Amino acid sequence: MNIQDYGFDPRCRPENIQGIPARITAVHRGLFEIVCDKGCGLAHLKQGSYRTSEADYPTVGDFVMVDWAGDGESRIRETLPRSTFFARRDPSSSGHGEQAIAANFDYVFIMQALDRDFNERRLERYLTLAWQSGAAPVVVLTKADCVGDASTHVQIAESIAFGVDVCAISVKTGSGLGALDRYLEPGKTIVLLGSSGVGKSSLANALSEDELMATGEIRESDGRGRHTTSHRQLMLLENGAMLIDTPGMRELGMWNADEGLSQGFADVESYFGQCRFSDCRHDGEPGCAIAEAIRDGSLAPERWESYLKLKIETRLADDKEGFLRDKRQWEKNLSKLVRQMKQADRTAPKTGRPPVRIDRAPAQIEHGMSDSRNAPNAERVSRDRPDYRTQACTESFTCAVCGSVVVPEHAGSDHRNHCPHCLSSLHVDNRPGDRASLCKGVMEPIGVWVRKNGEWALIHRCSSCGKIVSNRIAADDNSVLLMSIATKPLANPPFPLWDMGAATASG
């Protein structure tokens, strides 16, 4: 057995270091499987060697120096410098720590299944961390036999994964597997990443042409599989390439991923520096290049929203104290505004002064941190305000068009979508309730239509970007103005009314 077959370069061995080089092939709760020139075996950490925070705790794929013990447990003395490293926020640390996934690999196969697992937002997360690792990401779309035509999914993935190869494969039929051959070179290491049930172990078995890894059935109810891979494991294929199989990840939190974010979202950051103001916060300021790109369709609003969320998670990892400091300051400002609003509510009937509207949270808090409890993207809206996609909006505000005080009561529903006096609104949503739009233009009522159940709904058009949306009317809406909008086409017909009789008679 030769450690160089497992990718070790003798030139990387530091001088004057004790022990022999080995590579970690699996990790089991404090016990490590290793391979070296002496053979394969188990090893544990040398007491005292990894007590400092600077020490790199070994993970699968690491090269380490060990005191070989033959049939017994060898001792790991030191972790050698890494060429690449994939990590995520440790789910068990409440966001305070890093969890090492794999090290010293050349490619990251980001795997998503085309039956039910394909998810654009999750793909963005994997790509960000893959770029951060220092290796080259490759998107592998598995179970292509489950869809009639995989080209649509490939195009969507390519639109997200700029400059990254996207391959659609089927282990069951063998379709597309040949496209992966150029990555499976002797001495190269590939790490397989993806959710449970996407087919990582099945792909490992197919590439090795042997049953190296156990595979499991997929539940019909949600398309998920059990964690058939219970630990991270490195395997040497017959052609000399190596695979690192990993358990499925239910949560993929950001951890120190600034560089990966810039590479994964190069399309978004290309607009930075093009705004009218050099200190633009991209939050509704005039001349914002991001807002203009979203208006003209050059940048998808979902793409911008994903960038903001991942940026905040990365900042939380890089500067937790700074993040919490800003959050505490915003909470203080919020408390002050609440007191002002209550005082204004008490004085409004006497003075006519409208209540103070509470502005929304700054972007770094509003867009929140990841949490695995919300499907499908493992993302959670900030605790500092309700998620209007699922909860009622109970805020009072002053209409930006007519200046009237608008309260949540008397709307007849849980959602207040527009001013009941002038029927105007603001363009604050990309999708109903997400509060993610950068436009902030006035939504003008331009028409009325009737739903199948007989309920009336207003048609709003943004005076800034032209977007058209439909909003159900409220119980306290201005009925005269509603009728005026509804009958406006009849008051201005496209043909002379006196010709109607003649047209009817001739018919």
From TrEMBL:
The keyword Cell cycle does not apply. Zn(2+) binds at residues 275, 280, 282, 288. Residues 103-250 form the EngC GTPase domain. This is Small ribosomal subunit biogenesis GTPase RsgA. Monomer. Associates with 30S ribosomal subunit, binds 16S rRNA. It comes from Raoultibacter timonensis. The gene is rsgA. Binds 1 zinc ion per subunit. Keywords: Cytoplasm, GTP-binding, Hydrolase, Metal-binding, Nucleotide-binding, Ribosome biogenesis, RNA-binding, rRNA-binding, Zinc.
